[in-house]
């Protein structure tokens, strides 16, 4: 990822509506697992380490945050995030079958197309039989934006391609849904109309708006979290959520 983006993420991920709302969605998604009492959990592509710390506090998991980019890891190291490792998710240094779960959030989109299968095979290798993969990825090429370019996003996924890639790696799919769906019409207008008309240059979209707008933008994501928790699934959206399992 563009190293400059880590500065923006570190400033915004605690309070910005998108991060806060997507944490609610992630909670609902994890809640779909019958037993999420994991002991050892790898975060494949941890960025600043914020989510590893949050997952540890929220669920009591012993997190192993890993990321290729030291620019991101340095933030977590300063905050005292434990067990951070600089490594490539397509060639993990961990032993076979040493984790109960792998979490990877908006990371595989930074790999070249096709490389995600190598990452998924590595996630499978380090999972014990019955271990779970909790995955989130940016969805739909039509939603690629100036922010996507700034952040060095190399690909986006539709549901079929993501499921096919996981199947090639050996995962058994448990559940899949689009998310960040209710705001998709706004995103389409912004990315395909407004940014084109105004000829905007690539720039970060990670910034905290005014307090009222920040609170209002969280509402659709919190509504989606409730829907996902109730078992509803969205046919389109800006993100894809996956639960998958290593069977053997």
How is this structure best described in words?
There is one protein chain. This protein is an alpha/beta fold and 248 residues long. It has one domain: 3-Layer(aba) Sandwich (Rossmann fold), CATH 3.40.50.150. It contains nine helices and seven strands; from the N terminus they run H-H-E-H-E-H-E-E-H-E-H-H-E-H-H-E. The chain has helices at residues 3-12, 17-30, 50-59, 70-78, 115-126, 146-150, 159-169, 184-197, 211-229, and strands at 40-44, 62-67, 85-86, 99-105, 127-138, 172-179, 239-245. It has a seven-stranded mixed beta sheet with strand order 3-2-1-4-5-7-6, sandwiched between helices. Helix 5 links the parallel strand 4 and strand 5. Helix 2 (17-30) packs parallel to helix 9 (211-229). The longest helix is centred in the last third of the chain and has 19 residues, at 211-229.
At a glance:
With 248 residues, the chain is of the alpha/beta class.
Architecture blueprint of SSEs:
Layout: H1 3-12, H2 17-30, E1 40-44, H3 50-59, E2 62-67, H4 70-78, E3 85-86, E4 99-105, H5 115-126, E5 127-138, H6 146-150, H7 159-169, E6 172-179, H8 184-197, H9 211-229, E7 239-245
Parallel strand pairs: 1-2, 1-4, 2-3, 4-5
Antiparallel strand pairs: 5-7, 6-7
